Amino acid sequence: MVLKRTLNPTRFRHPGRVVNLCFAIVLLCSTLLTWREVVVLENAYLAGQRNSLDTIATALDRHLQYGVDRLLFYRSAMEEALEAPVITPSQEALAAFFAQRDSEGWLLNVNDKRGVPLRGVSDDYVEQNPYLNREEERLNQELTAASEFSYLMNSASADPALQRNMFYTSRAGFYLSPAAQEQEEARIRAHYHRLVNHPYFSAHSKRSNPTRGVRWTHSQSPVDQADRSLTASVPLDHEQRWYGVLALDFRVDAVTQFLLESLEEDHEADIVLYDSHFQVIAATKSTTHRGRLLSAEQKTKLAQMMKKATEGDYRLGARFISWARLSYFDGVLVRVDTLAQSASGEFGKITLVLALLWLLFTSMLIFSWVVIRRMVHDMYQMQHHLQWRAWYDTLTRLYNRGAFFERAKNAAARCREQNQPCAVIQLDLDHFKSVNDRFGHQAGDRVLSHAAGLVSQTLRAEDIAGRVGGEEFCILLPGATRDEAERVAERIRTRLNAREILITQNTTLRISGSLGVSGAQEEGTYDFEQLQLVADRRLYLAKQNGRNGVRARD
Question: Where is the segment annotated Disordered (predicted)?
Answer without folding.
Answer: 203-222
